[in-house]
Amino acid sequence: MLLVDNKSALELDKSIKLVTYFLIDYIKPGRDWVTVWLLIPLRNFYQGMPWAIILAFISVIGLRLGGVKLAGLVAGLFFFIIVLPGNWGFATTTFYYVSTALVVCVLIGVPLGVWASRSDIVAKITLTICDTLQTFPSFIYLLPAIMLFKVGELAIIFAIVPYATVPAIRYTYLGLKLVPEVTGEAAKMSGATAFQNLWKVQLPIAIPEIMLGINQTIMMALAMTAITALIGGTDLGQEIYRALPTSDAGRGVMAGLGIATLGIIADRLIGAWADQKKQQLGIA
After folding, report:
1. Could you say which DSSP state residue 229 is in?
2. Of these four, 1, 25, 204, 269, which has the most CB atoms within 10 Å of its CB?
3. How far apart (Å, rounded) are the C-alpha atoms in residues 186 and 229?
């Protein structure tokens, strides 16, 4: 049985390499263009941001969404966990990976969630794919990323996207399904087209749920950055990876806390915004 399994694995490996060989000539120009003209300038922009401006920005956002308590929480976490230990440079790279992947996840996940909410067949197929993607070990996503894009920033973002897109799809689907049917019927009776009904009635009601899905997408993208350190990441995940061989517990723990802090800040701000939106809509 072991010989049969090994033979199957070898045949599958040959097939994958053959497909990669034929695709690489088409992928390479696009990969190089995206890396040189989009990713590198974006990375340089993030790495050039002063921490004081970001601290002031998240403090103001926290103050507007949740008052002094929330502003103090996000500002304190940011300063004492990220800035003081000297992790700001690594944190900007982590934020660059996550925010870039987040844009792609939202552009893929929200339309798919909307489409799934409109068709039971699409919903069944899409949610089955989501279940499958969540079942795979996170390391699996590194393999196609390396084969198609080699080691680098595009490979890192490519590896994050399929893993982190699932919540954006699920919560968009769920949010639209939770919109009362009577609301859609009222809009239709008022003369709204299907697009107007979706854009002006259903999506605004579902937006708090969708934002919670985007929040979960951020959490999963952050978790994936610790894995993508294996394919050339230079962020907080790489700091954890570097700390392992030398048993540098302090370095690894502070980098891990940095990743957790970015997640907590995003979670608190998005959660406060979603609660505020629900109160405005009268669905809190």
Report:
1. G
2. 269
3. 51
How far, in Å, are 170, 188, 215, 217 from residue 210 at the CA level? 9, 23, 9, 10
In terms of Cβ atoms closer than 10 Å to its own Cβ (0-12, 13-18, 19+), residue 20 is middle
pTM score: 0.92
Distances (CA, A) of 71 to 19, 28, 51, 134: 51, 45, 16, 34
pLDDT in tens, 70-118: 999 999 999 999 999 999 999 999 999 999 999 999 999 999 999 999 9
What is the DSSP annotation of 44-74?
Answer: HHHHTS-HHHHHHHHHHHHHHHHHHHHHHHH
Contact between 97 and 157 (Cβ < 8 Å): yes
Q: What pLDDT, in 10s, does the model give residues 165-219? A: 999 999 999 999 999 888 888 888 888 888 889 998 899 999 999 999 999 999 9
CA 47 to each of CA 56, 86, 87, 230: distance values in angstroms, whole numbers, following the listed order: 17, 14, 12, 21
